[in-house]
Amino acid sequence: MRKLFVFALAITLAAGLGFASGEEETSAAATMSDGGPIYGGTFTLAPRWGNKPGSPDPADGQGGRTWYHELIQETPMIGDFDTFGPRGSGEWDFKLIGAIPMKFIKGNLIENWEVDQDKITWTVKKGIFWAPTESQSAWMDAREFTAEDLASDLRHWATGPEGARLLANKDANIYTSGDDVIIEFVEFDFILNATLGLSRPGFVGAPEMLEDGRIARWEDQVGTGPFMFAEYVPDQFFRMVKNPNYRGTTMVDGEEYQLPFLDEFIIPLANDESFEEAALRTGIADGGPSVYGTHWDTLDRTAPDLIQDRLPISFGGTFAFNTSKPPFDNRDVRRALLVGTNLDDFAAQRGAKGVDLPEHWWPIYPSLASYTPQSELPPETAMLYEYDPEKAKQMLADAGYPDGFTVNFYTGNWATILQQAAIMKDQWAKLGVEFNIVVNDGAIHNQLVKERAYDMTRMGYGSGNPVRDMPNNWASWGTRNQYEFNDPKFDELARAMQAELDADKRDAIIKEAAVHILNEVPAIPLAVKAISQAWWPWVKNYYGEFRWINDDTYVMPWGWAWIDPSIKQEMGF
Fold it and tell me: CA-CA distance, 431 to 393, in Å (whole number)?
């Protein structure tokens, strides 16, 4: 008989959210291991609104789906958080949204890797086994994972839109030789190894799933991870249960323990951001990823014992210029508008009290080796961050617009973006620029963006992975180049950074390219987001990490935790 949890939150919510945990005798079980970690129990994640499971097929290119594969299926590589993270040496906190330096990466499904100018070679680990559930065992054995399994998964993913974009112009050939998976290509890209190994939006699934349409059904998802698929109820919850034969271990206080500690993991689904806050506040959720700063005050007042690790992240918003259209085809106009933008107002709009948001975060995040601090920027670049509306007006006049102009900013009906647009409208009015806010529903807006039918629009940008994201946004071939930016010098730098194997030389190229983009101003960088990882004191073996691969690994780190039921009971939950 299943327990049914209902969010009876009449004061703050218009409706409740129901979801089931596992079998009662399973979720209630909790055993102590010699005073150390506790095995058993259920972890319930705070629901994340707007990130519901789409198609589970990696070839369908739905990035949000990875949330629900993270503990079931695995990636070829993973961040070595045990050794280098907060629970180890502390050299890397695994909180940057973006690239993890390769020295902090270890093999997961693969033993090691070699990268050459024309190929990547992965050697698959021995002793890894697929974990089909009882129902999945009707069409698949719990057999050993092979190199051909990995190659088959890569080839299938490459047939989808994301795989095709990544491998475009590379004439990729993916095949096996013994325990090796070999990926040959004609156009080298440094980021290819890490992207295939860590970042691609599809964890590795069994080739048996390609038969009879199983790849597109959640109930048929098979992996090698610490948990197995149990149940998916649309619009309610996603449930996983422990893989009793998982190979993985972790170190706790110098001792090695078998993973996972938990019997069951539940991800509720919600349509509204308020569900996340309510679930944390009431203790229905044990922990939650990426709680935005706008919720911190409420949680401080109503759940003072909730632990929150707060920080700025390397992802924020920009207002992108369509640089192919006047007046934004004029570099001097774009530079003038940045000088006439008070970036502090956009930082304040984030509501991140107690956290300093970096003003200069774009296009390279401050924690990266290729970052140039604001104090070290060339004078022509540093002046762009000195808010001066009178100077901006003069710069516009010098560029041929003494009376300003009208700009149409296109957006969907999204509250945060509309707030940012209202701030921009007020600021640019001081420059003589009329900032018209054109609102369409999501589908129409997306089509207009696809057709580049706008003067300006809102673009998100992650500044933590410059080798991937800078070319993707501003190279003439970039798949996210909604700026219509076409700059031969940047194209040259982008190709150079992607082709360079030496880390120090590559960082120097990235550094030059970042300053170049700053000077060209293809967009107005607004402010990064501030988040907290929140968890209750009964959650153990968690240290605030949320990036063990380069994708949206908001779920995975919680799978290494355990629950102490005695603390939970003492706290009245």
Answer: 5
Torsion over CA of 54, 267, 527 and 333, rounded to 10 degrees? 0
8 A C-beta contact, residue 287 and residue 543: no
Alpha helices in 451-487 (DSSP H): 466-474
Q: Is the pLDDT of residue 341 over 50?
A: yes
End-to-end Cα, the chain, rounded Å: 21
CA–CA separation, 81 and 474 (whole Å): 32
pLDDT digits (tens, 9 = 90+) for 344-399: 999 988 878 889 899 999 999 998 999 999 999 999 999 999 999 999 999 999 99
CA distances from 430 to 128, 389, 423, 538 (A): 63, 7, 12, 53
Distance (Å, rounded) from C-alpha 360 to C-alpha 337? 16
Total residue length of the chain: 573
**What is the tens place of the pLDDT at every residue in 176-207?**
999 999 999 998 888 888 889 987 767 899 99
Structure tokens at 470: 């800078």
Angle (CA) 151-152-158 rounded to 5° is 90
Q: Parallel, antiparallel, or unpaired for β 42-44 and 264-270? A: parallel
- The C-alpha atoms of residue 510 and residue 368 are separated, in whole angstroms, by 10
Place of tokens 């120090």: 504
SS3 string, 314-370, reads: EEEEEEEECCCCCCCCCHHHHHHHHHCCCHHHHHHHCCCCCCCCCCCCCCCCCCCCC
- pTM > 0.70: yes or no: yes
Q: Report pLDDT for 524.
A: 97
Coil, helix or strand at residue 77:
strand
Alpha-carbon gap, residue 221 to 204, rounded angstroms: 10
d(CA 466, CA 443): 29
Least confident of 61-75, 419-433, 438-452: 61-75
Q: Please give the pLDDT value at position 551.
A: 62
Q: How far is CA 118 from CA 64, 156, 186, 400, in A?
A: 31, 21, 6, 49
Q: What is the pLDDT of residue 11?
A: 27
**Type of residue numbered 271:** N
User: In terms of C-beta density within 10 A (0-12 exposed, 13-18 middle, 19 or more buried), how is residue 64 classed?
Assistant: middle
Residues 492 and 166: their CA atoms lie apart, in Å, by 19
Report how far Cα 17 is from the mean position of its chain's Cα atoms.
25
Using alpha carbons, select from 313, 325, 220, 319 the residue that is nearest to residue 521: 319
Residue 348 token pair? 């304040």
d(CA 510, CA 523): 18
